[in-house]
Amino acid sequence: MKQSIYLFFLLILFYHSLVNASEKISLMSLNDIKIIFSSSSKTWNQNLVFLDKKSSMKKLQLENNKNYSLKSIFKNGYVLITPYFEKDSVKTLNINYNFNDIDENKIDLIFNHFQSLDVNFCNSLKIYKNDIFIDIKNC
């Protein structure tokens, strides 16, 4: 239950920082990522049911994933957060930033942030058109 409350507040804070940042990009902290990795699929799905009621957030059911994804819409695009579970724990966390206008500064900011994560996390970063894809795993 305590973990569920932490995840719920984490997602609310993440939502709040995206909405209030017009040109500023708010990125997930290492602590945010650790909380998601410590969540069960049931906890994740339950918390997204509450967030789905916000106008700038949606829970989505992606193909090949029985759990929900969280899509947060902000002024210049959106971020899609999708954990992939194995045996009720997060195996991979996929984060997709999509920008209407993407520039080298945004790309560098996001790449540098996620490359500097804890050594316990391995990540791959890819860019395709206006999307930046980040896959994070426990090493």
Please characterize this protein's 3D structure:
The protein has helices spanning 2-20, 30-37, 41-51, 104-115, and strands spanning 57-61, 68-74, 77-86, 89-99, 121-128, 131-138. With 139 residues, the protein is of the alpha+beta class. It has a 6-stranded antiparallel sheet, covered by helices on one side. A hairpin with a 2-residue loop joins strand 2 (68-74) and strand 3 (77-86). The longest helix has 19 residues, at 2-20. The radius of gyration is 14 Å and the shape is globular. It starts with a helix and ends with a strand. Mean pLDDT is 78; it is low at 15-23.
Keywords:
alpha+beta, 139 residues, six-stranded antiparallel β-sheet
What can be said about this structure in brief?
The protein has 139 residues and is α+β, with helices and mostly antiparallel strands. The chain contains 4 helices and 6 strands, in the order H-H-H-E-E-E-E-H-E-E.
CATH class category label? Alpha Beta
CATH topology category name: Yope Regulator, Chain: A
Strand order of the largest sheet: 1-2-3-4-6-5
Give the biggest sheet.
Answer: 6 strands, antiparallel
**Tally of distinct domains:** 1
Query: What's the order of the H and E elements?
Result: HHHEEEEHEE
**Shape verdict:** globular
**Rounded mean pLDDT score:** 78
The percentage helix is 25-40%
Strand fraction equals 35-45%
Q: Which second-level CATH architecture applies?
A: 2-Layer Sandwich
Poorly predicted tracts of residues: 15-23
> Radius of gyration over alpha carbons?
14 Å
Structural class of the secondary structure composition?
alpha+beta
Number of helices: 4
